Inverse folding.
């Protein structure tokens, strides 16, 4: 285990992104606080929004470490993961593969195998702020031929690796989130082939490139992975820990001043007093509420005129390659809200997959788990491969806990189609009589939202000439 990742600093926590309780939040009330405390509160909210992509990454690798997946190890799922994989909006049609590393002590090699018949692997290599370095694998730069990707720090002038593809990584930490692309679906035979191919992925220091590399492969299927940041007052201790381990980017120098104003200084002890902790306890949940509202209602453009379906990402992702760093400013609000809702980025979004988000009724009400709804997916969805609809918890942006199934897709043979080829999908605490195969259960005590995924999207989907229907209330 790398010295840069200290497991003793990981806070015990449970069950995803949770706001502080109402009683805790009421300990500090900005409406009757003095000016200095109000400003600290507002800065603390801002800091949490800014840090969300980094926190998303930190909780991701913390959970992997608790599951026995250390730096340069490969975590994988031998089966398609279920609700116990608690990270932001994962799919459950293909099993995830995880890797992370640290280049503070020198360059690292990330090695991708070539695709085999019927099985490829696709994903993205990123830095700790989840800025994509490149897509890799069957739909990435190596196009399934396999490659060695050499990750080096800025201004590196040391030895390279013959035939390796070289990328400059600005942060100490980096990671990759990958998925097998399985022709014919996740059958037992295909999953075994995918696992065998996964066990050819390697991560190792450049200094060991000439030696016999031994890689630790850890099956995390069925292991509870609590990867969603817990947005209560403790989030600020995680921010303090991470900025002490990471490089300070030029774009973040002003934010380091804001951090100092709220009691978080790099390489100094983190010792908030009772008053500051009370401010943290109020600011963390407020930051989460703000990001939820910004993501689902404000920043993501609506795709179909007069309907509530919106794009997966705020405007600016393509222009900035998911960094939201413009020539004259850094839009950390859009980026923070985005990484409340997703884990990982992609270099070339829309070529292999396309996603849409739905969190409201046509009247602008949040989707409530104690209500009953129906969504009619039109016939002939313009995809080369398949489409899916998945439910997620509005607060955690992950799977609804202890609830299965969470997805219906067009490959499912038991899903009933209407005479015109459309598909009715029902949502609610209990299935409508006779509609069990077309039903996705909800938690009556939780709000939820949907992601529609399209694999192999055709142009008519991307230009919105094809439209999805809004959600229909059934009670």
């Amino acid at each position: 285990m790398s010295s840069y990742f200290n497991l003793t600093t990981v806070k015990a926590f449970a069950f995803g992104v949770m706001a502080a309780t109402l009683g805790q939040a009421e300990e500090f009330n900005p409406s009757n606080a003095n000016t200095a405390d109000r400003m600290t509160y507002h800065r603390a909210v801002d800091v949490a929004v800014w840090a969300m992509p980094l926190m998303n990454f930190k909780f991701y690798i913390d959970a992997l470490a608790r599951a026995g997946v250390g730096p340069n190890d490969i975590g994988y799922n031998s089966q398609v993961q279920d609700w116990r994989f608690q990270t932001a909006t994962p799919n459950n049609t293909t099993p995830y593969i995880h890797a992370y590393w640290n280049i503070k002590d020198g360059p690292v090699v990330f090695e991708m195998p070539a695709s085999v018949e019927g099985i490829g692997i696709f994903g993205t290599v990123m830095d700790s702020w989840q800025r994509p370095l490149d897509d890799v694998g069957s739909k990435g730069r190596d196009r399934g031929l396999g490659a060695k990707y050499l990750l080096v720090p800025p201004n590196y002038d040391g030895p390279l690796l013959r035939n390796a593809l070289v990328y400059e990584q600005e942060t100490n930490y980096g990671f990759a989130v990958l998925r097998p692309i399985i022709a014919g679906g996740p059958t037992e035979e295909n999953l075994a082939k995918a696992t065998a191919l996964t066990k050819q992925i390697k991560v190792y220091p450049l200094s060991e490139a000439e030696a016999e590399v031994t890689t630790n492969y850890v099956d995390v299927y069925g292991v509870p992975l609590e990867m969603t940041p817990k947005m209560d007052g403790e989030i600020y201790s995680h921010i303090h820990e991470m900025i002490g381990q990471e490089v300070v980017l030029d774009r973040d120098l002003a934010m380091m001043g804001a951090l100092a104003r709220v009691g978080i200084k790099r390489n100094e002890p983190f010792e908030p007093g009772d008053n500051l902790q009370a401010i943290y306890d109020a600011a963390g949940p407020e930051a989460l509420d703000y990001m939820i509202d910004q993501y689902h209602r404000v920043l993501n453009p609506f795709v179909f005129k007069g309907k509530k379906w919106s794009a997966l990402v705020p405007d600016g992702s393509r222009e900035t390659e998911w960094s939201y760093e413009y020539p004259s400013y850094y839009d950390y609000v859009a980026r923070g809200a985005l990484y409340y809702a997703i884990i990982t980025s992609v270099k070339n979004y829309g070529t292999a997959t396309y996603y849409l988000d739905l969190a409201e009724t046509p009247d602008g009400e949040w989707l409530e788990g104690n209500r009953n709804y129906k969504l009619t997916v039109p016939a002939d969805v313009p995809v080369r491969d398949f489409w899916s609809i998945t439910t997620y918890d509005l607060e955690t942006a992950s799977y609804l806990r202890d609830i299965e199934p969470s997805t219906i897709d067009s490959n499912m043979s038991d899903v009933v189609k209407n005479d015109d080829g459309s598909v009715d999908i029902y949502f609610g605490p209990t299935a409508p009589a006779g509609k069990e195969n077309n039903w996705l259960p909800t938690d009556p005590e939780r709000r939820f939202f949907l992601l529609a995924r399209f694999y192999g999207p055709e142009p008519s989907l991307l230009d919105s000439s094809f439209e999805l229907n809004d959600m229909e209330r059934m009670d």
